[in-house]
Design a protein that fits this description.
FAD/NAD(P)-binding domain, seven-stranded mixed sheet, globular, Guanine Nucleotide Dissociation Inhibitor, domain 2, 3 domains
């Protein structure tokens, strides 16, 4: 018999959990603080431009397909996924580039232009990543609720050299410094430092190679809209502009939630897609949390934050710029810059950027004859004590000037839409502890059992999905967290 389940938040973890649980016959109610669904995948519509607020690198499409299949539907009838080629174009500080896609020979030709000796090393690297991928993917949809779960996989983690960092692992095979960066940046996509994130995360490169990188026609917002339609069909009650103020606890069990307007909503289980740290620190009184105390929550190391500028131009750069859909613009510094960002002390003077150019694939994201972009710079989280009310405008100017001088001529004269977010947005709007963009940082001692668990140790009927719990951030991670919670709430179906 179905239970009454409340889902807090509508990021991809919450949307996926709500859809899965409703498809199983549970009575699901979803509360979202903002005026539309999406969480970090919120969309901005400015002067005829559509900007995806958050995730734009779509991998592991089968994890989306699984949700629709569980609901007896076909994902293709809700939104279209377009494979991208190349996956990324990565530029060094002098503007020289390296591209890659799913074609091994193409990648070897690209490597040849940088360092012919690394072709053989890359082939060996790819051979080892298959084992890492198979081991890692077997873990991402399994709950790690007990330390014995961790002990079972420990021999595999040692065998696969998980004590090495992603950068260190790649460096065993690749000698060219720029190419090392090209094959080790991936942890940044999920809030990790390539110099610290365990080598298990090289599985991201294998995942991309094997299944490609996709773009949802109409932007990532089209996936959110597809989920919205699916939830409606499954009978999920969705409440927008509705903030949850407290999770109600009685006799060491979750009973429901109190909303900001004071109303009470009772449930048999609560699934939080809100930031895990925020959930514990702000929605549950400290006296009710024996295991997940304030001290425990604050002892974790949290990911960096982001500074993002969304902008539209009245000029098209699609033929003159040599850019791809996904571009990574690397600073001359790599290790030093990463250490400064993750040291959480001050704003570095230089930056590495991710530049998203969706209109290259989908002109409908901008008015006719226009181009849509966003540019993202990893920055320290709010532990760094940076006064963003003072720093944001000069930092924005520095980035836009850099783009104008190196990639987008006459950029600022052609701007017709602009919006930006900084760590304060992650803290104040997205309720993310310390303004962290990806919650708990993926280090070896904050992975699997060491991450906040998908079921709370304090309350057997409180569950977590999203970036801060196991297996972690990124679309495959948050979709898998929903799959785990589905299994925990429906053990016979797991």
């Amino acid at each position: 018999m179905g239970q009454k389940v409340i889902v807090i938040g509508s990021g991809f973890g919450g949307l996926s959990a709500a859809a899965r649980l409703a498809a199983r016959g549970h009575e699901v109610t979803l509360f979202e603080k903002r005026d539309k669904l999406g969480g970090r995948a919120y969309t901005y519509e400015i002067n005829g431009f559509n900007f995806d607020g958050g995730p734009t690198v779509i991998t592991a499409p089968w994890l989306l397909d699984e949700v629709w299949e569980l609901a007896g539907r076909r994902r293709e009838e809700y939104f279209e996924l377009i494979p991208l080629d190349p996956f990324y174009k990565i530029f060094d500080h002098q503007g020289r580039s390296f591209s890659y896609n799913g074609d091994h020979e193409y990648i070897l030709n690209q490597i040849d232009a940088w360092n012919p000796r690394d072709k053989e090393g890359y082939t060996r690297f790819m051979a080892t990543t298959q084992d890492i991928f198979q081991t890692g993917m077997a873990l991402i949809d399994k709950p790690f609720l007990h330390f014995t779960d961790m002990l079972r996989v420990l021999p595999d983690l040692v065998r696969l050299q998980s004590y090495r960092s992603v950068y260190g692992y790649v460096s065993q095979f690749i000698e060219n410094e720029f190419l090392r960066r090209c094959f080790s940046f991936h942890p940044l996509l999920i809030g990790g430092n390539p110099l610290d994130a365990p080598s298990l995360y090289v599985l991201i490169h294998y995942l991309e190679r094997e299944w490609g990188i996709h773009y949802a026609k109409g932007g990532t917002g089209a996936i959110v809209d597809g989920f919205g339609r699916l939830l409606d069909e499954l009978g999920v009650q969705v409440h927008l502009n509705t903030a949850v103020q407290e999770i109600l606890i009685e006799d060491n069990s979750v009973r429901g939630v109190r909303l900001a307007d004071g109303s009470l909503h009772m449930a048999d289980a609560v699934v939080s897609n809100a930031d895990v740290a925020w959930t514990y620190l702000h929605l549950i009184p400290p006296t009710q949390r024996r295991t997940n105390s304030d001290r425990w929550v604050k002892s974790k190391k949290y990911s960096m934050s982001l500074f993002v500028i969304y902008f539209g131009t009245k000029k098209r750069y699609n033929t003159s710029s040599h850019l791809a859909h996904h571009n990574i613009l690397l600073s001359e510094r790599y290790k030093g810059l990463l250490r400064e960002i993750f040291a959480e002390q001050e704003l570095p003077e230089d930056f590495s950027l991710y530049l998203h150019m969706p209109t290259l694939t989908d002109p409908s994201m901008a008015p006719e004859g226009c181009e849509a972009f966003y540019v993202l710079s990893p920055v320290p989280n709010l532990n760094a004590q940076i006064d963003w009310s003072v720093k944001a405008q000069p930092y924005r100017d520095l980035i836009m000037q850099f783009l104008e001088e190196n990639y987008l001529p006459d950029l600022q004269a052609n701007l017709v839409a602009e919006h930006r977010i900084d760590p304060l947005h992650f803290q104040d709007t997205l309720n993310s502890y310390l303004g962290s963009a990806f919650s708990v940082e993926p280090t070896l001692l904050q992975s699997a059992w060491f991450r906040p668990h998908n079921r709370s140790e304090d309350f057997a009927n409180l569950y977590f999905v999203g970036a801060g719990t196991h297996p972690g951030a990124g679309l495959p991670g948050v979709l898998s967290s929903a799959k785990i919670v589905d299994g925990l709430l429906n053990p016979s179906a797991a």
